[in-house]
Specification:
The protein folds into 2 domains: about 210 residues, 3-Layer(aba) Sandwich (Rossmann fold), CATH 3.40.50.150; about 120 residues, Rossmann fold. With about 400 residues, the protein is an alpha/beta fold. It is globular, with a radius of gyration of 21 Å. The longest helix has 27 residues. Helices cover about 35% and strands about 20% of the residues. α4 links the parallel β5 and β6. It binds S-adenosyl-L-homocysteine, thymidine-5'-diphosphate (TYD) and zinc ion (ZN). Thymidine-5'-diphosphate binds next to α12.
């Protein structure tokens, strides 16, 4: 029996197997090592609705809990991106007498703090306790719960309809999509908008960024698959916008069917996806072959450097790096430690491969000859602040879109 599509019950055809993988954000203490959780990470495409998705689900409470360690405000570029985004969302509901903005996956309040500062009624759904508490410290109103059909109905009952429902890097995390879209249908005002942005499958294929695939990233959206996904819920895709953040994303704007005319950008992106062959097995199998090539190149480079006695340090203990290190067999023998600014990750071991995570200051103490940039999506920001590394003779290793040293 092939796996079943979580959107339409169609048959899912697997095209890439990334093997046995740990929870990507489970940074471990020594005591955690014995009970580490693993699952099989593989991706397929629905032959009916074209949605690309994981073939195995990880239970949500194993990923999103009190100690979830990802803090959205850790990047200055992302802080700026979400401030700009919040202002744009506020402008879109400025004509309402008492607008209400809801965010799904509000994390540490990186977006809603701007909404709060504008004095606009808002609510964030954020199940992960400590990041939700960080938002509350900024005065952001947070419900420490998962958004779904039931919790959305309760908010509609107490607060009334939402003019804007926003989500960034969260909708693609949620396999129980029918409950989400039912919740949007219950909570959204008649002329409201549901806006979400997530890594774009077109960019993932174009850049061979296979590290975007991990437990938390369940769906890999295209304009075509999102259009089909929302149509069954009386909703319509009315706009798409490509974004440069996180290696290439798309922001999808959804309205109630017939409420707003779709922009030309929707048809244009769907046409571009057809030309790129994003739903064709030949393209997907080429992506799998490209992924295998990147793995071979990265393994060869790291092994050569080890033989030459050259130290390599990882930069950014990202969730994405769990896929790279576990798929490529990169342990502390090849990468001696990973530095990261997040206190919740420091002093711990990377999932599956058990590489120590150290504070960012460890990078310059002293600079290593080579750094493997796991947080490649933040390359401009990181290279700008780590100019001393290059000046010391250090070189960056990257693997997107292919392995290169610079
Ligand atoms: N929006 C932020 C955070 C993305 S990380 C940003 O773009 O940086 C994804 C977040 O979604 C996590 O904080 C996780 O706890 C939360 N999340 C996961 N499932 C959720 C659900 N069903 N409802 C609301 N939030 C959810
Ligand atoms: P990110 O790539 O945003 O997400 P994911 O974990 O989903 O792959 O993670 C960036 C990580 O890199 C995060 O742990 C913070 C860290 N980081 C630094 O250590 N220094 C920096 O300058 C930046 C921007 C991020
Ligand atoms: Zn389907």
């Amino acid at each position: 029996m092939p796996p079943i599509c979580q959107i339409c019950d169609g048959a899912v055809e697997e095209f890439l197997d990334l093997g046995r993988q740990p929870l990507s954000d489970a940074f471990l203490t020594e005591q955690d090592l014995a009970g580490e959780f693993f699952y099989r990470l593989a991706v397929g495409v629905c032959r009916s609705c074209t949605m690309v998705q994981l073939v195995e689900q990880v239970p949500r409470d194993l990923m999103f809990h009190e100690d979830y360690p990802y803090y959205s405000s850790g990047s200055s570029v992302m802080r700026e991106h979400f401030e700009t985004t919040a202002r744009a969302l506020l402008a879109r509901c400025a004509d309402e007498p008492d607008p209400f903005v809801v965010e799904i996956g509000s994390n540490d309040g990186v977006l809603l703090k701007t909404v709060k500062a504008a004095g606009v009624r808002h609510l964030g759904f954020e199940p992960s306790g400590k990041v939700a508490a960080a938002a509350a410290e900024h005065g952001v109103r947070v419900l420490t719960d998962f958004f779904d059909a039931e919790s959305a109905a309760a908010v509609q009952h107490n607060d009334g309809p939402a003019d804007v429902i926003f989500a960034a890097n969260t909708i693609c995390h949620i396999p129980y999509m029918r409950s989400i879209l039912e919740g949007v249908d219950r909570l959204l005002a008649a002329d409201g908008i549901f806006v979400f942005e997530d890594p774009y499958f077109g960019d993932i294929v174009a850049k061979t960024s296979f590290d975007q695939i991990y437990d938390e990233h369940f769906f890999f959206f295209t304009a075509r698959s999102v259009q089909a996904m929302v149509a069954g819920f009386g909703l319509e895709l009315v706009d798409v916008e490509r974004l440069p953040v996180h290696g290439g994303e798309v922001r999808y704007t959804i309205a109630r069917a017939g409420a707003r005319p779709p922009s030309d950008a929707v048809g244009a992106l769907i046409e571009a996806e057809r030309a790129q062959g994003l739903a064709d097995l030949v393209t997907l199998r080429r992506f799998a072959a490209d992924t295998a090539r990147v793995r071979a190149d990265l393994q060869a480079l790291l092994r050569r450097l080890r033989e030459e006695g050259q130290q390599v340090v990882g930069y950014g203990a990202t969730a994405k790096s769990a896929t790279v290190t576990n798929f490529c067999g990169i342990d502390s023998d090849l990468v001696s430690f990973v530095c990261d600014t997040t206190p919740a990750k420091q002093g711990r071991l990377t999932p599956g491969t058990h590489i120590p995570v150290r504070p960012a200051e460890a990078f310059a103490d002293p600079y290593p000859p080579y750094a493997l940039l796991f947080a490649w999506n933040h390359a401009d920001e990181i290279m700008a602040k780590e100019q001393g590394f290059r000046e010391s003779g250090g070189r960056w290793i990257q693997y997107v879109p292919e392995v290169h040293v610079s």
